[in-house]
Amino acid sequence: MPLKGITKEGDKCVIGASATVTDLDESPLMQEYFPRLKQYIKLVSSTPIRNIATIAGNFINASPIGDLTIFFLALNATVVLSDGKENRELLLRNLYKGYKILDKRPEEFIEKIWFQLPDKNTLFHFEKVSKRTCLDIASVNSAISITSKNDIIENAFLSAGGVGPIPLFLEKTADFLKGKNVNEESLEGAIEIAQTEITPISDVRGSEEYKRLLLGQLIKAHFLSLGIVEEVET
């Protein structure tokens, strides 16, 4: 496939490593499966940067607050690494071993990314808080993909940025949600567990306490925006 292609292969979306943020934004396939995509993309930098910034570049940069990394972590995306001769697949969440430390040999590069397209029972949401609503790096960002049926959560993937040395996949929180009823109690339990998975530090984008509070608010925003729960206390 072309390095900038965004295609559907069975129930998967396959994205070439050189696809830009703008390519993602303008993809009919992505727009079909993610109706709020343009709303999310507006939170990612500025138009000139979106025109040249690639998805794979965002991953390899390994910023703890990379917007696209957080977006695709919640889709449980897989990266395909190549050394020019052989390929290997790696869950995006396993690419990050420490601050700016990757499970990638020097000769390897990302060839493509793929993820399972959401079905009718799956909802996705991305949130970001920064000093400027747009054009700024995040203080904290987060995304969720949640599958429920008959008010029971069957599967969940939750990510968070700005609250640790790497882009975080909140595995314990996601596991907690599986099998739970869709209600405020499950939401509050998820927030409590998420707090045990993060290690934010105080910096120019906010104090540790502020970032912890923000993540809790973003998780609430996910549930509220997707209509999973009605208004809850803040």
Characterise this structure.
- The protein is of the alpha+beta class.
- The protein is built from nine helices and eleven strands.
- It has helices at about 20-25, 30-35, 35-40, 45-50, 55-60, 65-75, 170-175, 185-195, 210-225; strands at about 5-10, 10-15, 80, 85-90, 95-100, 100, 110-115, 120-130, 140-150, 150-160, 170.
- The strands form three sheets. It has a five-stranded antiparallel beta sheet, with no helix packed on it. A four-stranded antiparallel beta sheet has the order 8-9-10-11.
- α7 runs antiparallel to α8 and α8 runs antiparallel to α9 (about 210-225).
- The longest helix has 18 residues, at about 210-225.
- It is globular, with a radius of gyration of 17 Å.
